[in-house]
Amino acid sequence: MVRFLQLLAFAWLAARVAELDAMTLASVIGRLKMWAVSMVQRAASHVRKGTVQPSKPWERFHYLAVTYHKSGVYLMVTLWEKIFNALGTTLDDTGMWRTPPCYTLEMCWHPAAPVRCWIDMFSPELRDKEEAATGPVLIAGTVRDPLEMVVSAYCYHHRGKEVVGNMMFWPPGSVAALGPKKGVAFVAERMTQLVENMTAAFEFPRNDTHRVSYEKITRSSEDFDKQVKGLLKFWFDGLISPEEHQRALEAARLVDMHRHPEAAPEDHANDAECMNQARKAVFAMPIQLLARYRAFQRSTITITAAAAAAAAAAAIIRLNLSDQHIACSIASCGKSQAMSLRLDELRRALPRHLQERLRSLGRSDVSSTGPIVYWMRSCLRGHENPALDVAIHASAALKVGLVVFLHIEDQYPHATARRQLFLLQGARSAQEELLQRGLSHVVVHVDRHGNRGVHRMLMPKAQLVVAEEPFCVPWLRGIEELRHMGGPLWLVDCASVVPCALVPQAACHRAYAFERATEALHQQLAPRHWHEVQPEGEANAPLGWVLPQSIDLKSQHLEALVKDMDVDQSVAPVSHTCGGSSEGYARWQAWVNAGGLKTYAKRRNESLDVHGVSRMSAFLNTGMVSPMRIARLAFAASGAGKGKFLNEFLTWRGLSYAHFYHFSMPATGATLAQLPSWAQQTLLQHAGDQRKVIPVEQLRAARSGNAAWDGMQRYLVETGELHNNARMGWGKAVLKWTDSPQAAIDVLIELNNVFALDGHAPPSYGGLLGCLGLFEGPKQESAVVGKVSYKPPKSKYAAMPEVARELLKCDVQVGGIARYFETPTADHAVGEAAPKRRWTRKLESEVRAPLIEID
Ligand SMILES: Cc1cc2nc3c(=O)[nH]c(=O)nc-3n(C[C@H](O)[C@H](O)[C@H](O)COP(=O)(O)OP(=O)(O)OC[C@H]3O[C@@H](n4cnc5c(N)ncnc54)[C@H](O)[C@@H]3O)c2cc1C
């Protein structure tokens, strides 16, 4: 009787599926007959949970096939049924559920079965509940372009395919009465939650989640096979015999409409004319709704690479689950299993927030037994450091030691004593942090006379080198060198809030496009806390050889080290800004406490108002503070200036990083080719225009003859800083004083990178090339600059040296105070809780000089 009711229930459900996707009743009955026959045939041989060794995959794992209205419901349900049927499931093993609340009991049956199909209801929250109740589940689902789902749903329901009604979305008949404009918007609005669930679950599929692309599986038989093979690998790799695999594949092929057009449900295809009209009507949707769907769309597009990785990652999970029946983090995989992993499998098993920051170059196999080496160069911090976390994971998974090679280089273009001291101060604080994190193989190396090239001896010993994404000069050269060495190399984006790899290349030319493309991701990622990974014993495992000598920067005279370096010693360090993480967070905190974030929108455009802006760029560009943390803190703050600050910080900064990630400059330096083609053309067309050429030495010495420009240049030379608003006029003037567009680029880079403490970073090149048309469109044509916009420096900037004196005076005090701040602790992360009490106490007891207003 129970069986009979279940069969009835399945018939009812299949009819509902048929109603959803226009499958005919005849095909439902046919399918049911096949199902029933196969059940009987297999019942005798079937083994369910007992004391004997599990012999079927679903005796080891739970399986979930999930699908959403118009993402391929018919397809997924039939695939699920055919594949598991072919492998011998019985009715006892299978269950189905649809959209809570379950309207009728017949629609939902056997909720605890090990092999289930869910329609319209899967979400990350439900997955978590499910996992808590049943243990690990291998989930596969169909995903389709969300706007195509809406268009298809509109046309389908508009032609009256709502016999029983789509109870969860709208009352029967309502869509049939609406024309495309209203109808598409109506359908989109009602399907939002469902699409959001789909996107959230499959945007960055976890390694227990696999995406089946609707677009691909319906494109051709070849693509169908690829998708099905991917699905079978994900679900059953190592769990079924080759014969069973072949049987499942053959059974699945019956669902391929290209091979079996007769299997397609009747009346399935929408009218092409309706689809065309509905696609056009998408653009008439309310702007907010369309923006939401665009964000969904981007998310479903960006997932492709990650989705392809899921099958391999699942193999790792299965490897462990099948023996231990518990989910295994990569860190706890057994040694022999781990050693046999290829690096790309290991990479796919990393946590999502690291995986999406990682680019793999060089070989992908693990061929030596050497350590993991993290080459720390431009991300000088021991916290919230994605490259370090990746290296720790890799060391744990491969059960080998981790060497952190903290390297301060010299002999790069425009290296100065000013910058080197700042970097060394940052390195000193990073060294301390690394030791506090429990890492013992930390080698600090400072390039200087007679002491260079150590990295070239160390790197070949590594079985994997992890380095920071280089983005621009001077970091590119070292990465090129490493690539020539040929070993496995992972580059990790440590600088972006939204990882550059997730930003579409096409959105990296203009700020508005970048902002739009990343809006949803920023909303999602900016508030997110960083989950630090703790190094385990493996990281400090003996290496079996002697590491290069390390410098203890705490006990070193940093100025003396700088003197020994091959850098421009004529550009003296600035005393008002001291490098290091706690210095950076202290500056941030002081600025926020002083109301800087609140008044940012009002004050940020006034270049003479030194403390109207955060002055964080040098700390950010050298990785001494975490951009993720600054984003998080700003996001959590309130006040009028917050939005504007986030716009500058997330959009303009993010754009620079994403641009140079996707459009790499040569390791030898930026050229005219880094500009948009309209800018290249117009500048070359005007290259012969008459102009006053001023030698670079004169410009360096602030002797252009233009009082405003010279004022800015002196300010830059003296302080190592220049306000954003002044910078554009400063840069554009140089374009008129150099004898060619390429010379303008070279001189600008020299002036900026030699003197600015925040130089040598993507925002530097973004700003400098921005003076020549990058991130802009063509404007009114004029001599020399062509169609590149031009604004002369404002005359008030002649007074900037006066401001400089004020800045230096104030900052000596702020810098003094900053050094008293403590490093983050569990309950008080630097910069996250207002350290007002401690700050005041230090002010009173430690600081003698007159104080600036800080609160
Ligand atoms: C010709 C020229 C040269 C520049 N050179 C550099 C440089 O060498 N290094 C550098 O970091 N920035 C450079 N910029 C961008 C910008 O001027 C600085 O980022 C900003 O002045 C840093 O000051 P702040 O930290 O007080 O910024 P705030 O106004 O407090 O902004 C906070 C953060 O947002 C980011 N940010 C703000 N404005 C921009 C922007 N326009 N582009 C990119 N990021 C931004 C920075 O990380 C900054 O620290 C340049 C701009 C121009 C026009």
UniProtKB/TrEMBL annotation:
An example molecular function term from Gene Ontology annotations: deoxyribodipyrimidine photo-lyase activity
GO biological process, one term: photoreactive repair
UniProt cross-references to Pfam families, sorted A to Z: DNA_photolyase
Signal peptide as annotated in the record: 1-22
Keywords, comma-separated and alphabetical: Lyase, Signal
Annotated ranges, domain Photolyase/cryptochrome alpha/beta: 370-500
Name this polypeptide is given: Deoxyribodipyrimidine photo-lyase
Organism: Symbiodinium microadriaticum (Dinoflagellate)
Gene: phr
